[in-house]
Amino acid sequence: MLLDGVSVPERPGEIRACLKVRNEALRLASVFDHHRALGVDRFLVIDDGSTDGTLDYLTAQPDTHVLRGEGGFAETRSGLRWVNTALNAFCDGHWTLTIDADEQFIFPGFEQVGLRALCGHLDQSQVCGVFALLLDMYGPGDVTEAIHTPGAPLLDTCNWFDPAPYTADRAGPYPHVQLQGGVRARVFDFSPYQPRPPVISKVPLVKWRRGMKYLLSTHAVTSIPIYPMLAALLHFKFLSDFPERVEAAVAEGQYFGGSIEYRAYQDRLRASGGRLCLHDANSVRFTGSEQLVALDLMQTDEAYEAFLAAESGRVDGPPVNDRA
């Protein structure tokens, strides 16, 4: 079973991260390094049968616990049951980031203020979660040219994004809003497979309590007080392995609806002979959190601005610089 043989020490105040992975050796070290620098103390990783060296990396990490996914990815709602089981077993009372292996969490002022200080502010504000935009990052040339060195900053490989347009729609599951748009809505045609482009909003940071559940990946969660800000998840899907991963996803059909989202990617790649450049004249190069706030892709409130001002010059860990 998923939890068999896994022992996680109970250390109050730890900030934890939970991921489900399969063959993520290309990105994983970079993602871990980013979140360690941000302030994550412990990682819980559910592995779905990796064969590319992912397990070798994970088992060598002293701050990481590996759980083995069983029951099939599709049969467990794309691993959602695994994630909820792990969170309820090991994250009760902990601020926890639930992310994918191609995502890096950031928030306004993250370059100066660590995750522990952020969570302290959230505790004082009596909230339990943070809403985030999934911001697709890409390189300046063809996607096959986005060749990443494991462990290097992912922003060195893909540091461009679409500044607009993004839309917000009402949704049934909490938090009752879903964001769409960006480069995937601009470049790919999803209409043969689904009514709208993919949802690009999540609730990745939650002070977990046993009995909570994610309802639709991390796009929706049990009703909790959410802080009135917008953070971001930098999303590094579009590395050089993208065409290969698309073909595998369609062939295996394990993602939602038999991998219908990936069929749209496959259509675009095949129509262009395998070439895919996401960069265009409106693309913007990422420079930091202030830029995203100015573009309204991250948002704060007055209380958060006061918190940042009070924390100025008082860093609770090494400054975060993903380009170091």
Summary tags:
8-stranded mixed sheet, alpha/beta, globular, disordered C terminus, 324 residues, two-stranded antiparallel sheet, 10 helices
Describe the fold and architecture.
The protein has a domain at 102-311. An 8-stranded mixed β-sheet has the order 3-2-1-4-10-6-11-5. A two-stranded antiparallel sheet has the order 7-12. A two-stranded antiparallel ribbon has the order 8-9. It is built from 10 helices and 12 strands. The protein has helices at 25-38, 54-59, 80-90, 115-124, 154-157, 182-187, 242-252, 256-271, 289-294, 302-311, and strands at residues 16-21, 42-47, 64-68, 95-98, 103-106, 129-136, 160-161, 166-170, 177-181, 201-207, 226-235, 284-285. It is α/β, with parallel strands linked by helices and 324 residues long.
Please outline the helices and strands.
Layout (H helix, E strand, L loop, with lengths): L15 E6 L3 H14 L3 E6 L6 H6 L4 E5 L11 H11 L4 E4 L4 E4 L8 H10 L4 E8 L17 H4 L2 E2 L4 E5 L6 E5 H6 L13 E7 L18 E10 L6 H11 L3 H16 L12 E2 L3 H6 L7 H10 L13
Parallel strand pairs: 1-2, 1-4, 2-3, 6-11
Antiparallel strand pairs: 4-10, 5-11, 6-10, 7-12, 8-9
Helix pairs in contact: 7-8
